[in-house]
Amino acid sequence: MIFIDIDGVLIPLRARPAEADRRWNGRAGDGPDRYGNPLLNRLDPDDGRRLLALQGELVWASTWMADANDIVAPLIGLPALPVLDWSDGDEEPSRGVHWKTAPLARCAAGRPFVWLDDEITDADRRWVAAHHAQPALLHRVDPHLGLTNIDLVAVRQWLDYRDDADRPTAHGSAADKAARP
Question: Predicted confidence band at 162 (pLDDT cuts at 50, 70, 90)?
């Protein structure tokens, strides 16, 4: 599973360089769009293609909720994705742990996952390591830059490593080897 935040990840805090603006066929700057959101022009229309190229189930992990599919997904060429339901957010997170961390781990339901967010801290990494039995990559995206090729390379490398570790060999899978005495 690959959990994706929007604000600070797909919509950076700073305007993108002019090159990205040109991809919008003349729509540039931070003026309001048809949705009334002045920051949607900061989306990179190539992000959808780049995210779809990752080997994993994409899931929105954003307060945009259904608007992620209604507004953001079509602008970057993504199909409708599952949306993480934050309704069980009554539980108070541990000190320093992001309020999204526990719901993400519950949604992953014991599966490996990647989380792309601009507010991830070491406290979140420690919490996941202590409460989630499977590997997880909590990757912090620089909110001023938004998702970059460097971020995606880090995710692809982690996913490739995971695939290599799970790939069976002539002597059985890595899990089989780990289970042997």
Answer: confident
Nearest to 130 by CA among 105, 98, 95: 105
The closest of 40, 6, 2, 5 to 24, measured between CA atoms, is 40
Distance CA 113, CA 61 (A): 12
Extract the runs of DSSP E, i.e. beta strands, from the chain: 2-4, 58-60, 113-117, 136-140
In contact, 107 and 1? CB cutoff 8 Å:
yes
Contact 88/104 with Cβ under 8 angstroms?
Answer: no
Q: What is the pLDDT of residues 70-129, one digit of tens each?
A: 999 999 999 999 999 887 656 676 778 999 999 999 999 989 999 999 999 999 999 999
Residue 55 to residue 155: CA distance in whole angstroms = 10
